Amino acid sequence: MPARRSLPPLLAAVTVVGAVLVYTLADAxxxxxxxxxxxxxxxxxxxxxxxxxxxxxxxxxxxxGVETTAGTVDExxxxxxxxxxxxxxxxxxxxxxDRDVRTVNVSVHPTYGGDGQSVTGYTARHDLDVTLRxxxxxxxxxxxxxxxxxxxxxxxGLTYALEDSAALREQARAEAFAAARRTAEQYAALAxxxxxxxxxxxxxxxxxxxxxxxxxxxxxGEALPLAPGSATVTVTAEVRWSLR
Length: 244
Fold this sequence. Notes:
Mean pLDDT: 83
Order of helices and strands: HEEHEEHEHEE
Radius of gyration: 41 Å
CATH class of the largest domain: Alpha Beta
CATH superfamily of the largest domain: Protein of unknown function (DUF541), domain 2
């Protein structure tokens, strides 16, 4: 059988180099392109301003109640109910309308002896939320109601309030926005810019006033002395402006 003829050395070298060249070109990565730059965010400034407005309360909300203890549940409830009726009658006598009186709690629970386990009786409660609109006579009304309830009567606390605080909110809101604008203008000047349009406004408000006061023992024939103080509405404005 005749011997196979080998390729000339030069032709073999060309063949190998050609194969490497084809492989390299086929696997070479495409041209590198830079990702498009994201547009720069518009410059802005966000600040807070606080405004307050104060007015005179025109309402008094007081929580009145009765509490009685007896040997059985029925006795405790019956005694508490009787005392609560006397409170309601006294409120009507004082010309407090029914719409301003609301029952907020009726409860009964056992009382225990010194060992903490043996039941010695039952305590019943009946509480009323009362709105008084005549502040000048509020002390006398509370005293009359407590006297009607006798030893079972309780005064849990009272709070002065504003029936309509819309005007105070508007005043506080204007003050808060003006305060925020002054601060934003200062920041814009420090940055060498000018204040642009308002982009966003958020508001937080917190009505406040005198804390609930313990009325103590109002019985004694004299009107309970009361001081209404003032009621304050606070508004916080968060405002964002563009910068030019």
